[in-house]
Fold this protein.
Amino acid sequence: MGKAMPEGTEAAASLDRSPIHLLHRAGQCAGDIFQSKLGMTDLTPRQFAVLVTVSQNEGLSQTQLVDKTGIDRSTLADIVRRMLKKNLLQRRRTREDARAYAVRLTDEGRRVLKLVEPNALEVDAAVLAALPSAERERFLDNLNAIVEALSSISAGHIPS
């Protein structure tokens, strides 16, 4: 029979095997590195994701941006509002739906994206450098599989 552990120790000891905790911690660490590299722009990782997504898909609606980035609707609306104030994005009503906005980069948004993109790529490389090079593609594939599966679950499609 093993020794009894103090109350709460089992849960604390299991954090190093908890995917949700480890994903959160990895995200925090990556976000900290991102902020240290791109601090001069005060751009957040999510704002960068929006800039990249809009640059690759000019004229998306905010709903389509939610789908492409995975950022929830209210957070994305706040991010777009902040980026409008910084003159990084512009939005106009769409012809198809007068209630929807088409989002585009401004010239300033393009300039900032071009300025920060090399640093963001360095951050990605630093994160991946934590793994042996032979495991990096598999790690990215696994993260994408997790995102896809969990997105489906959070959308109400629980797998059987």
About this structure: The first strand starts at residue 60 and ends at 61. The beta strands are 60-61, 89-93, 101-105. The helical segments are 9-13, 19-38, 45-56, 62-69, 73-85, 107-128, 136-154.
